[in-house]
Amino acid sequence: MRIWVDADACPQVIKDILFRAAERAKVLTTLVANTTLRVPASAFITSVRVKAGFDVADHWIVRALQAGDLVITADIPLAAEVIARGAHALDPRGDLYSDDNVRERLAIRNLLQDLRATGELIGGPAPFGPGDRQRFANHLDHFLTQRRSTP
Q1: What's the helix, strand, coil split of the chain in %, to 5?
Q2: Which of the pair, 92 or 110, is modelled with greater confidence?
């Protein structure tokens, strides 16, 4: 199992949690972005810089992941693709995507996007806060603990 991070929009506090978790759980963690990323020197942490462009990092992650891997992303279409390929997806706010909820979230995302395009809805998600960080850390820890106890 590996962790893949859609790192372009991932908050630094989440990256820091992932760096500590990679070392503690000894799980390979790769950050993928279209900018150069600074990551700690570690046998378990790497970064990949992809060319700039729409969804380039997403497509790179989808090609590289294996069933059972974990992808950290706020991108719901990417999460849907990850789930379809037998992997797992966790939002930086701590929401674990599943077969049961990813299609619904994709439909809501598309509706909100349409409403924003028509001007009927202004704004985006709430600011990232301490509760989001804690929920993410808890779900990540639970996920990694489950994987360690599964043969």
Answers
A1: 50, 15, 40
A2: 92
